Model the fold of this input.
Amino acid sequence: TGLGVEAGMMDILHVALDNEMQSYDLYRSAAQDTADANGKRMYQYLAGAELTHFNLLMANYEALSQRGGWV
Done:
């Protein structure tokens, strides 16, 4: 990793990224599977929130690995 970033921090971010993507997939699938319009909107909202979390974590992962600091 770049500029002395602890390997443990990168591992933690990997786990967090995996968790966010699994949650995104779960909510996206639930949105597709439900016939209830309100449920569909709720699951779509939750999937979007998980994708936002993933993108924020990825930005920090990239910043840490390339520049050694948080975004």
The radius of gyration is 15 Å. Helices lie at 7-33, 37-67. The chain has a mean pLDDT of 91.
